[in-house]
# Entry
Amino acid sequence: MFPMARYWISSTRYYTATVSVDLLGDLVLVRRWGGRHNNRGGEATRLLADAEAGRAELDALDRLRTRRGYRLVG
# Structure
């Protein structure tokens, strides 16, 4: 079941989101983004209540990334 991950790209940028269990046993969403041809980017981590919240976050990110011109990479 874990980790659940999604990866999106545009012509110049990438965006990843992963739901996994950390070392303390908490469920976390880790988002990473950056340029495909440079070193600029960032990362954000957020605690989640349960697996369903993780799926909902990934679905919401999928809608947002698609609306902003990214495409989902399988």
Remarks:
- Strands lie at 4-9, 13-21, 27-35, 41-47, 71-73.
- Residues 51-67 form the longest helix (17 residues).
